[in-house]
Design goal:
By secondary structure, this protein is α+β, with helices and mostly antiparallel strands. The protein has a single domain, classed as CBS-domain (Roll). Helices cover 44% and strands 18% of the residues.
């Protein structure tokens, strides 16, 4: 399974913000869209990521307030990125090693999506469920043994 498989299932919704925007605007957008991250874009290029983790850290550093804090001062300027062709095993490994919950997907220097740790976990579970159903169907439809060999017929 590769990243494009997840993007195909989850859709193309992308939420971005600029480094110059305020942290208050970013938090408001995250709440409104019910998302845990915003990709920070400048001049059509990904320059960072802002997750609820960075929002909380910035609020704590600023005495619980967002006033006067920009996205630029709060974002992670070095997010993990992948391409649509990246294998899911590699994505899982990267996310676990960096404790990353969100990863922008880039193709030809252009943002094409964002995958979350939830998306990855869901894809793994869905794949395992499908495989289990196929195995159970295969076992259920197991052909009867040749009666000449006196082998038991399993239900």
């Amino acid at each position: 399974m590769i990243v494009s498989d997840i993007l195909r299932l989850k859709g193309k919704a992308l939420y971005t913000i600029t480094p110059e925007d305020s942290l208050a605007d970013a938090a408001s957008l995250m709440a409104e869209k019910d998302v845990g991250s915003l990709v920070v874009v400048a001049h059509e290029r990904v320059v960072g990521i802002l997750t609820f983790r960075e929002v909380i850290e910035a609020a704590v550093k600023n005495g619980g307030k967002f006033e006067g804090v920009s996205v630029y001062r709060s974002m992670d300027p070095g997010p993990l990125i992948c391409t649509a062709a990246t294998e899911m095993d590699e994505v899982r490994r990267m996310m676990l090693n960096r404790h990353a919950r969100y990863m922008p997907v880039i193709e030809n220097r252009r943002l094409v999506g964002v995958i979350s740790f939830y998306d990855v976990a869901k894809a793994v579970v869905d794949s395992q469920d499908f495989e289990n159903r196929m195995l159970k169907a295969y076992i259920r439809d197991w052909p009867d043994e040749d009666p000449k060999h006196n082998e038991p017929n399993f239900p």
